[in-house]
Amino acid sequence: MKRRDFLKQSGMASGMMLLPGFVHAAMAKTSQPATRRVVFIQLMGGNDGLNTVIPYRQEMYYQQRPLLAIPAEEVLPVTAEWGFNPALRELLPFYEKQQLLVLQQVGYPDTDTSHYHSSQIWRTGCLQGQEANRWLPATVPVTDYGTADFGPTLEHIASQIGKGDPTQVYHLALDGFDTHQFQRVQQDLLLATYAQGVSTFLHALRRNGQLDNTLVVTWSEFGRSVSQNIRQGTDHGHGNQVYIFGSRLRQWGIQPCTLNGGELSVRTDFRSLYATIGSKWLGVAITADFQDGLQIV
Question: Could you give the CA distance from residue 269 to residue 216 in angstroms, rounded to a whole number?
Fold first, then answer.
């Protein structure tokens, strides 16, 4: 189906396919099957979300980034308001199959813009970033591949999942997103690597019958400034985008976000996302006192 036909049929012209509702996250163990898995991908360095999933109809985006913004004619439009970086072309089919959710302005209060500390906070679910205070119980098998070769490692994970590996939570990082200068040269190449790796991974899961049982959640330790700097890059910011892939998403699309010229604030606490993933997807008791969950799975 051509993209323009898809947009007409899907009703995406409004850009309002979803407004995630907040519900209290159940903390008790549920009856969800133990075979469900989550693959967390960190875009290490603080990925610039606004040049990844792009508000190409918002004038403020181009005012704040006269040299850095992706020209509207280069954007891959998926709604009347938002489009993908051209390096993400391989991910379009998953969006069109309603298998991608983009959450906006995700983070935590009083963002720590230290790469190390903020990464620890996201990994542990603890604002102090202490390794001992993980958000999942110790009974959940976790494997962390660090910054191992991105594409081959995802292929290995897909193979392990297909073989029945008991691991329920995988971590993998793609480094290089601290784009303080000449951002487009650096980020576009990395996003192409990310898109190719994720696309190959999701196709492998479909072939081995595990797509329905796997979520892929992509995060970055913080966002970046709305405005470009003098080096044609961006500096550390606060709220950012999170990308969730899955064939059983209850909500999909791109969450609305309006630029106002200032710093993108945090609207959704990432720990509410963890509460949903833990209790409603993995079916485990959450070890931390998270307030709310999102109705996404």
Answer: 18
CA 263, CA 35: separation in Å to the nearest integer?
40
Q: Which residues contact 252 (CB under 8 A, 6 or more apart)?
A: 17, 18, 95, 98, 99, 100, 101
- Tens digits of residue pLDDT in 78-109: 999 999 999 999 999 999 999 999 999 999 99
For residues 61 and 296, give the distance between their C-alpha atoms in angstroms, rounded to a whole number.
Answer: 28
Strands (E), 21-92: 22-24, 37-44, 53-54, 76-77, 83-84
Cα(55)–Cα(257) distance, integer angstroms: 8
If you average pLDDT over residues 221-244, what whole number do you get? 96
As a whole number of angstroms, the distance between CA 82 and CA 60 comes to: 14
Q: Are 141 and 274 in contact (CB under 8 A)?
A: no
Q: What is the sign, positive or negative, of the torsion defined by CA atoms of 244, 249, 251, 252?
A: positive
How far is residue 197's CA from residue 90's CA, in Å, rounded to a whole number? 9
Both structure tokens of 26: 């159940």
